[in-house]
Design goal:
One of its GO terms (cellular component) is endoplasmic reticulum. The chain is α+β, with helices and mostly antiparallel strands. The protein has helices spanning 45-53, 58-61, 76-83, 89-94, 121-141, 161-170, 196-205, 212-224, 231-241, 299-304, 359-368, and strands spanning 18-21, 28-36, 64-70, 97-101, 145-150, 155-157, 178-180, 189-192, 242-244, 250-252, 285-289, 309-311, 319-328, 332-337, 350-356, 382-386, 391-395, 403-410, 418-422. The protein folds into two domains: 6-252, Spore Coat Polysaccharide Biosynthesis Protein SpsA, Chain A, CATH 3.90.550.10; 285-422, Galactose-binding domain-like (Jelly Rolls, Sandwich). α8 (212-224) crosses α9.
């Protein structure tokens, strides 16, 4: 490494990251690396993290680690999103989410790079730094788990993507170097951790010369292609080391690139359509909300399982209400906010309340408060639960009796829109 980056000889500690926070988890099956940099317009990072953690079973959370590599030493704003621990408290505490950044002295002088392939000076500097970012992240990740998955900060993932990756890797009978779970760029590329030192050395050898996805293709050429045979033979040999999985597990959603001014409408056609809502056979009810509904995504549709409900940013005092046509005995409830395409559009600081059908009980609640270990509202509702990481679910004390209505009450202004994808 010091041969290719000689400036590091003066500061050997520059190859060690600043761990902003994390539990230093090791011994997992899958390590996921996500480099992130400041973008001039839209940021996709939070939606990416929400998507990767969305509906992830605890067993899989315990067998993976997501490393967020903040690839700008001055990028305080990005770190604060997560450092306040408002979005992923359990994941941060458990160690499934880790955030690191490089020391400023890691990067060499990038001001006098040779322009190649018709790229502008800014683009050459951007892709060169990107190669250094990937290299640093891979070196840090190599001792943490069996496999390393390269991702980007503007993607969404399919449900159960981790198990799908494990299953595909397990059924490979031949030696491989890369398993691809997306056809786009460097997204969804799986490597064996034991191969990372070789891969990083190759990247650093040519980090000034070509983009990262070209370099990985050249590495495969060096390993298996015979210069005395034709290009078709070479492609067949490379295909033995680089195996494509279908359908794709990751989709690119970013439009504004991390390269200033670059627009990229890249979509993986093999990803397919996402399931954005889930239907249940709910009892007949009238529905109402004070939220401003977006286009055709009405509350009636999510209650009937026809589509999701989508509304602009809730404010304190907003509510969603489901009033049964006939009182119902309810044992359990589930409300899920956000979906695969917009995993960050969740309900935050929102309580679940029920209105008992028994008029005497309601009057007693208003006059004397609750005796059922549930706080009571002034209009006779009982607060039985709340949204945590976008989901509210639980069992109901059967001494409440039949229920006339459910209400989701928003207690503070939200900076994001809200989606209900399952009721």
């Amino acid at each position: 490494m010091f041969y290719y980056l000689p400036h590091l000889r003066e500061n050997e500690d520059a190859i060690f990251p600043n761990v902003i926070f994390g539990q230093q988890r090791t011994g997992v099956s899958l390590v996921m690396g996500i480099p992130t940099v400041k973008r001039e317009k839209e940021h996709y990072l939070l939606d990416t993290l929400h998507s990767l953690l969305y509906e992830l079973p605890e067993a899989q959370k315990n067998d993976c680690v997501i490393i967020l590599f903040v690839a700008e030493v001055s990028l305080c704003g990005k770190v604060q999103y997560i450092d306040n621990k408002a979005f992923f408290p359990k994941e941060i505490q458990s160690g499934v989410l880790e955030v690191i950044s490089p020391p400023p002295s890691y990067y060499p002088d990038l001001s006098n790079l040779k322009k190649t392939f018709g790229d502008s000076e800014d683009r050459v500097r951007w892709r060169t730094k990107q190669n250094l970012d990937y290299s640093f992240l891979m070196l840090y990740a190599q001792h943490k788990g069996t496999f390393y998955l390269q991702l980007e900060d503007d993607i969404i993932a399919k449900p159960d993507y981790i198990q799908s990756i494990k299953n595909f890797a397990a059924k490979q009978s031949q030696e491989w170097m890369i398993l691809e779970f997306s056809q786009l760029g460097f997204i969804g590329k799986l490597f064996k951790s034991e191969d990372l030192p070789l891969i990083v050395e190759f990247f650093l050898m040519f980090y000034k010369d070509k983009p990262i996805d070209w370099l990985i293709d050249h590495l495969l050429w060096v390993k298996v292609c015979n210069p005395e045979k034709d290009a078709m033979h070479c492609e067949k040999e490379k295909a033995k080391l680089r195996i494509r999985a279908k359908p794709s597990l990751f989709q690119h959603v970013g439009i504004h690139s991390s390269l200033a001014g670059k627009i990229q409408n890249l979509k993986d056609k093999d990803f397919g359509k996402s399931v954005l809502h889930k239907a249940h056979n709910n009892p007949p009810a009238e529905v109402y909300t004070s939220l401003r509904i977006y286009q055709q995504y009405t509350l009636e549709k999510v209650y009937k399982g026809e589509d999701c409900f989508w509304a602009s940013s809730p404010v304190a005092g907003d509510y969603i209400r489901f009033t049964f046509l006939n009182p119902v005995k309810v044992e359990k409830y589930l409300f899920r906010s956000g979906n695969m395409e917009h995993p960050g559009d969740k309900l935050f600081n929102t309580t679940v309340e029920v209105l008992p059908a028994d008029e005497m009980l309601r009057k007693d609640l208003v006059d004397h408060g609750s005796k059922l270990n549930y706080p009571a509202t002034k209009d006779g509702y009982l607060k039985i639960g709340f949204f945590e990481n976008g989901i509210a679910e639980g069992s109901i004390n059967q001494s409440i009796g039949e229920i006339l209505a459910f209400r989701l009450s928003v207690n503070s202004d939200s900076p994001v829109w809200a989606i209900l994808s399952e009721v």
